[in-house]
Every structure is written in structure tokens, then in C-alpha cells.
Design a protein that fits this description.
mainly beta; Jelly Rolls; six-stranded antiparallel β-sheet; 2 helices; 10% helix; binds fe (ii) ion; dioxygenase activity; dioxygenase; 2,4'-dihydroxyacetophenone dioxygenase
């Protein structure tokens, strides 16, 4: 049960008694998702890191807070599936598009798009909430495939980092749904 209501009009409405179907998995609640605690951000590139919030190995999908403290780069890659993003702070964009995202800006990238993510120098770090369906396919300068990164690589990367910083690799498993 969340915080008790005081005078809210809905204060006498009871909660659903059996809110989960027998095979349903529990929800995920993470307070302060775009935290300033740097341990929680897993280095993804030399300049951009990721705080995992939700991971679906079966759907090859994950949600995260992507963060760059200053100028940042996620080099060119192609997405066979969609990507959603909501900008929390800072300034970022893709070299391939003419918009620049700042706090409050929403982005949807259609399946079949290649792009190069850049974060700008800004008084606040770039923080954006992303929903990504893998894989990312790394491209060389000619646009040819030179590697892939999917949810399994993401999980391995997160486990290694969390083990190293003392949070423990098992934390990552608590985000699986
Ligand atoms: Fe991307």
C-alpha cells in the first residue's frame, strides 16, 4: 500500500485484493532513477554510461537512464527495432537528425534507423530515460556491420560493473522481468 491518504477523494477505495494473476511477475519500483550516485551507472562507452532499470532477456529489451557527464559519444549503430527516449537533463542528439534534445523532450526512433548519439557540454549532465529493443548493430565508417550489442551483452556488462563496485552482480537479476 502506498502512503495513506489524508483528504484525497479516493481515500476509502480499497485496493484490489488479488492484483496479480498467478503467473504474473512483480512490478519494479526504483526511486530516484536518474540518481547522481555514479556507482549505479555502468560504463557503456568511454564517455557515456547506463543505469539499468528494467531488463527483459526474453524480449531482448531494456530500460535505462543514459548519462554523460559532459561531451559524450555512442558511436554509429543501427537499430532493427524501435527506441523511445525521454530527456531528463542536459543536451543530446544524433548526428543524423536536425533536432537537439533538452529536458522534457521525447524521441521515438523507428526500426531501421542508424545513428550516432552525441551529448553536449552543458551545465547539467545528459540524462535520458531510454527504452531499447536490441540489438544495436555497430557500424563502421562505410555503414557496414562491425559488431552487435544485445540484451545479453548488456546484462554481462552490468553484472561485471556492479560486481566491481561492490553492489554485486546479482543486483542485475532483480531487474529481470
Ligand atoms: Fe541508438
Amino acid at each position: 500500500m502506498p502512503e495513506l491518504a489524508k483528504s484525497e477523494f479516493w481515500k476509502d477505495i480499497p485496493a484490489i485484493p488479488n492484483c496479480f494473476k498467478p503467473d504474473a511477475k512483480p512490478e519494479v519500483y526504483i526511486s530516484n532513477a536518474p540518481t547522481e550516485d555514479e556507482k549505479l551507472y555502468v560504463p557503456f562507452t568511454e564517455t557515456v554510461s547506463s543505469r539499468p532499470l528494467w531488463i527483459s532477456p526474453t524480449e531482448n529489451r531494456w530500460c535505462d537512464i543514459l548519462m554523460a557527464k559532459s561531451a559524450g559519444l555512442v558511436n554509429r549503430h543501427y537499430h532493427p527495432h524501435e527506441v523511445f527516449a525521454y530527456t531528463i537533463s542536459g543536451k543530446w542528439g544524433y548526428l543524423e537528425h536536425d533536432w537537439t534534445a533538452t529536458a522534457g523532450d521525447f524521441v521515438y526512433e523507428t526500426p531501421g534507423e542508424g545513428h550516432t548519439l552525441v551529448a553536449y557540454e552543458h551545465e547539467e549532465p545528459m540524462r535520458a530515460f531510454f527504452i531499447v529493443k536490441g540489438p544495436l548493430i555497430w557500424l563502421d565508417e562505410k555503414g557496414e556491420t562491425e559488431g552487435i550489442f544485445d540484451v545479453h551483452d548488456y546484462i554481462a556488462m552490468c553484472r561485471e560493473h556492479y560486481e566491481k563496485v561492490g553492489i554485486g552482480a546479482a543486483y542485475v537479476d532483480t531487474l529481470f522481468r
